[in-house]
Amino acid sequence: MSEVRQSRTLRAVSVATLASQILIVLTGGLVRLTESGLGCTDWPHCTPDSFFPVPEHGIHGFIEYANRLLGAVVIGISIWMLVLAIRKAKSAGGREILTLAALVFFLSAAQGIIGAVVVWLELRPDTVGIHFMLSVVLVALSTMLVWRVFRGPRGPKVATAPQFVLTHGATALFAIVIVMGTLTTGAGPHAGDGGAVRNGLNPELLQHFHAWPSYALLLVTLALLVVAVRKGPRIHLFSVLGLLAASLFQMVIGLIQANTGLPVPLVAAHMMGSVFAAAAMTATVLSLRGKAEVSV
């Protein structure tokens, strides 16, 4: 395989890695929002007596099983990415790509184990929450992977001190928003199964604890935008605009769903918005540095 073809394949598989990590969040959300979380009551078998869904479980079994199949595809893509990264390990920036690819693979495999625990413990909200937050981490890592494949090894700092401070402040607020949102979901009605327990916390109070850091994140992002417009690399400005769009989308959807009884389509949109926001937040951090002289 020629070097040009290898490079194209590496880029394509890195994008596939990110896309699959985002898609698995969507299908996982559909499992929970359609109350199909126990459509398969065992793991790795669907039921103790069958590896595949059984008619008795109806559409719920097929929805849960489809999510498991996609999980296998995600791991398969991560293995492919890891193999390609190993081949490129000796090139400029190759070790960083290899590290990221290895992290994505091992954490994707861990997701499979956590998914089994979720089923065995009958959708306890703490295990479901860990499952989701690890998906956010995987989306962030996959975004880093795509960035390094396309942009090359980490270059020198190109942003100003205020941009660094505001960006890392936004990152801390984003982490708080994700944690509080996960806790809020664990107290809400969408448990993944009608009989699943909730975390016992006050969902109305948690909605406020989730909203306040979200508002703070929006304000910090707006401040970051003002600074980025005045000075800084163009790619940083574009990343901040993406983060602002994701933050505004999440805020609007969050307010609407909280005041309309948490309709399933809006909850699904809010869940997907969170991983797109994670990708935008990651890109904003990465854009604080420029390209190295030698690209991958």
From TrEMBL:
- In what pathway does it function? Porphyrin-containing compound metabolism
> Which keywords does the record carry?
Cell membrane, Disulfide bond, Heme biosynthesis, Iron, Membrane, Metal-binding, Oxidoreductase, Transmembrane, Transmembrane helix
Q: Which residues form the signal peptide?
A: none
Q: From the Swiss-Prot or TrEMBL record, state where the protein is found.
A: Membrane
Origin superkingdom: Bacteria
TM annotation in the entry: 12-33, 65-85, 97-121, 127-150, 171-192, 212-229, 236-256, 268-288
What is its membrane topology?
Answer: Multi-pass membrane protein
Which BP terms from GO are recorded? heme A biosynthetic process
Q: By its UniProt entry, which InterPro entries does this protein fall under?
A: COX15/CtaA_fam, COX15/CtaA_HemeA_synthase
**Molecular functions (GO terms):** metal ion binding; oxidoreductase activity
Where is the major localization of this protein?
membrane
Transmembrane as UniProt keyword: yes
Q: Does the record carry Oxidoreductase as a key word?
A: yes
GO CC list: membrane
PANTHER family recorded: HEME A SYNTHASE
Q: What is this protein called?
A: Cytochrome oxidase assembly protein
Which species is the source of this protein?
Answer: Agrococcus casei LMG 22410
